[in-house]
Write a structure and sequence with these properties.
The chain is of the alpha/beta class. It contains 15 helices and nine strands. The strands form two sheets. Strands 3-2-1-7-8-9 form a six-stranded parallel beta sheet, sandwiched between helices. Strands 5-4-6 form a three-stranded antiparallel beta sheet. Belongs to the sirtuin family. Class I subfamily.
């Protein structure tokens, strides 16, 4: 891929509102490898001075509260230990009708570029009507905000989408080796693996799955390292994840900055009601990898990794940090989640009403007409200025582009390549 192709592809992305996948297909632009990331980075640097007609310093100003904070989302009964796994999933009821295709605002949001005259209005100083030049995308607006020092307490919320490129197998897709392997157990449904009642009766299917998913076998993705980069810059307030794969820890993010909302493999406990003895990840792994069911040394009850199953409460850390963190948040980035699993899905509403919210996802999700609930990408349902943006596509690609706008791309690439080199891992993962 030459530099002209990279520029053309990025121009299509920023100027013609193509999705990231469409851009890659039309311009042969791929940022999945270190080499091509650097090519795109070089193209961005060359094109940057010509493309921008508004300086970063001129585009971002003070930020005042324009309305009362949105109502706190109700906490509903806890749900499963993996994104999109629920017997009774609850989604927001926002409209996604194609009948609005003639509406410029709706069309802009659907294509991944927010309405240029409305997005991030709360960030504008008096007399300024837009953060956007003709070529600006929502990722550039976020970059402008960060560079101007208007985002110092960033919260990232993440789901399974940020781990997809790590190669973690999908146990729910027919035809995959893991799915086929689990069929021998005649599960009533795949999600039964994460039911505490089923686990008590028949733990073996879960441990077959756990062996395939166990931490240490997969390489963190660019999305994970982008979150780490936010932490290194002192900008990450907290990373809330639905994932149980421990890839945030593997990427080297300080555990104090991580809230594993659905638990993880990092620790384990005896499930005996009167025992609850704690066991290490290494102890459990040793049993699982010799195909033995882990049982408590004290009471012989089953030992289960601290993953939240159906029928169990969420980790106390989730509730202990939630209110304080989201009250401080000045930028919310949501990546790779369907926002179907509660209560995780509803915490996007816990930030103040003036705080910008960016969704990076393959599909537009989490919308609602209800006051104070869900995203409003088109700016049709809120009295307060529009502050929600949607970028359609792969989270790794979007994070690389955002890093480019911030001038951090070299650092992002170095973080991942250094990790791979130090761990002796396979770059292809």
């Amino acid at each position: 891929m030459n530099q002209d192709e990279a520029i053309a592809g990025l121009a299509q992305l920023l100027g013609e509102s193509l999705t990231l996948d469409e851009t890659r297909a039309s311009a042969s632009v791929s940022i999945e490898t270190t080499t091509e990331i650097h090519v795109i980075h070089a193209a961005l640097k060359q094109d940057d001075a010509e493309a921008k007609d508004i300086s970063r310093d001129d585009k971002v100003g003070g930020c005042d509260d324009l309305d009362a904070d949105t109502a706190a989302a109700a906490v509903v009964p806890p749900s499963p230990g993996s994104d999109d796994i629920s017997d009774g999933e609850v989604s927001y009821t926002g409209s996604s009708s194609s009948s609005d295709s003639d509406d410029d605002l709706a069309q802009a949001a659907w294509s991944g570029t927010p309405p240029p005259l409305q997005v991030y209005a709360p960030l504008l100083p008096a007399g300024v009507t837009s953060l956007f030049s003709a070529s600006n995308s929502s990722l550039e607006a976020i970059a402008d905000m960060v560079i101007a020092g208007k985002a110092k307490h960033v919260i990232v919320m993440a789901g399974a989408g940020i781990s997809t490129d790590a190669g973690i197998p999908d146990f729910r897709s027919p035809g995959t080796g893991l799915y086929d392997n689990l069929q021998q157990f005649n599960l009533p449904h795949p999600e039964a693996i994460f039911s505490i009642d089923y686990f008590r009766r028949n733990p073996k299917p879960f441990y077959v799955l756990a062996k395939e998913l166990y931490p240490g076998q997969y390489v963190p993705t660019q999305s994970h390292f982008f979150v780490k980069l936010l932490a290194q810059k002192g900008l990450l307030l907290r990373h809330y994840t639905q994932n149980i794969d421990c890839l945030e820890r593997a990427a080297g993010i300080d555990p104090e900055l991580i809230v594993e909302a659905h638990g993880s493999f990092h620790t384990a406990h005896c499930i005996g009601r009167k025992c609850r003895q704690e066991y290490s990840q290494a102890w459990v792994k040793e049993h699982i990898f010799r195909d033995a069911i882990p049982r408590c040394d004290s009471c012989d009850s089953l030992v289960k990794p601290d993953i939240t199953f159906f029928g169990e409460g969420l980790p106390s850390r989730f509730f202990e940090l939630l209110s304080e963190d989201f009250a401080k948040c000045d930028l919310l980035i949501v990546m790779g989640t369907s926002l179907l699993v509660q209560p995780f899905a509803s915490i996007i509403d816990q930030v103040s009403s003036h705080v910008p919210r960016l969704l990076i996802n393959r599909m537009r999700v989490g919308e609602s007409k209800a006051p104070g609930v869900g995203f409003d990408f088109d700016g049709r349902y809120r009295k307060t200025p529009h502050r929600d943006a949607f970028v359609a596509g792969d989270s790794d690609e979007a994070c690389a582009l955002l890093a480019s706008h911030l001038g951090w791309l070299d650092e992002l690439v170095e973080l991942r390549t250094s990790h791979i080199s130090n761990q002796g891992l396979d770059l292809a993962k």
